[in-house]
Design brief:
Elements (H helix, E strand, L loop, with lengths): L2 H16 L5 H18 L2 H13 L5 H24 L5 H5 L2 E4 L2 H9 L3 E5 L5 H10 L5 E5 L5 H13 L2 E5 L5 H10 L3 E5 L9 E5 L2 E5 L2 H9 L2 E8 L6 E5 L11 H22 L12 H4 L15 H4 L4 H7 L4
Parallel strand pairs: 1-9, 2-5, 2-8, 3-4, 3-5
Antiparallel strand pairs: 6-7, 8-9
């Protein structure tokens, strides 16, 4: 393991080992302090966040984008502080930590016994939502995680999520899709973060007026297994309780090829994600390139100047960024 890998693994290990022991008010203050420091440093992550927000909030000037990116970094660090502390939260704290709207779409789907796929963007804290599902609803589920480097860091994330009651499959190796399909045919629940995919198999969608690529997996699983496909969006307010909404099902088109159906369904997911992101842009933790125009450096727009992240927060391969590439949770 390289020195950088050892440092990365050590930092995350310290987070889970130390932050979870802090009193909650102290953890909140720490998260906000780190967020504000990262924002003032104006590293690559913050600049990319502002560039992404410029698509979400068209017409926003430098001051508005700066305010959004500061709020976005605070939201991002709230995610990390909560995630480091989740293993130490009591059952009652987890049950009271999330308040979703329109939950009947999920519970009715599970009662129908055909399986449910929940697809989420990188909004607020998807790990907390998952822990709430396994704890409050008592519903186990399966998700996928991209293999991270160093391997020890990947092992930490798998152990963390398994400790919250999730079954975690490695994205690499080609076996995840088949296992997910079996879980759904058995009437189970699958949760996938699905707003970013840089692979050749990603589906092109219109997202805030420009072309992006999102994973095909959620739509393909719904088609192949007959499972219900439900978009979910999350957000924070000023309380300690995270909010969320389970959107109406994405229907499988009655006609068309598999590719055509997948395109229509993935666009429907993108539209639902866009609704949630537009309502709460500061809770969208997208510190990476997303739109195809940005993936070509010659076409990348220049981020507006305004007042980011320590090196650990700047990389294009943060753990949740890797998750999203493969449609993972």
């Amino acid at each position: 393991m390289s020195a950088r890998d050892r440092l990365t693994d050590g930092l995350y290990g310290a987070g889970w080992g130390t932050v979870k022991k802090l009193p909650e008010p102290a953890a909140v203050r720490l998260g906000r302090t780190v967020a504000d420091l990262a924002w003032k440093q104006r590293g690559a992550g913050v600049r990319r966040l502002e560039s992404n927000y410029a698509r979400v909030v068209p017409g926003a000037g430098p001051e508005r984008l700066a305010a959004l990116s500061r709020a976005g970094m605070r939201s991002y660090l709230r995610y990390w502080m909560e995630s480091f502390r989740l293993p130490a939260w009591s059952t009652e704290r987890i049950k009271g930590g999330f308040a979703p709207e329109d939950l009947h779409h999920l519970t009715d789907g599970m009662d129908a016994g055909k399986g449910v796929v929940l697809a989420l963007p990188h909004l607020a804290n998807w790990d907390l939502a998952g822990a709430w599902v396994t704890t409050k609803l008592g519903i186990p589920f399966t998700t996928v995680a991209e293999r991270l480097k160093p391997e020890t860091l990947y092992d930490r994330f798998v152990a963390y999520r398994e400790g919250l009651g999730m079954e975690v499959l490695p994205h690499s190796g080609g076996t995840a899709f088949g296992t997910l399909a079996r879980r759904l045919r058995d009437g189970g629940l699958v949760c996938l973060v699905a707003d970013r995919d840089l692979s050749a198999s990603g589906v092109e969608v219109d997202f805030f007026g420009e072309t992006a690529r999102m994973p095909a997996g959620p739509a393909l699983l719904a088609q192949q297994t007959g499972a219900l496909l439900l978009p979910v969006t999350l957000w924070y307010d000023d309380s300690p309780v995270m909010r969320g909404r389970v959107h109406p099902p994405v229907e499988v088109p009655e006609s068309g090829t598999r590719a055509e159906k997948t395109s229509v369904m993935t666009q429907a997911l993108a539209d639902a994600f866009a609704t949630g992101i537009a309502d709460h842009p500061e809770d969208w933790h997208m510190l990476q390139r997303l739109w195809l125009k940005d993936l070509d450096p010659a076409k990348a727009p220049t981020a507006p100047k305004a007042p980011t992240a320590p090196k650990a927060l700047e990389a294009d391969k943060t753990p949740e960024a890797a998750d999203g590439q493969g449609g993972a949770s």
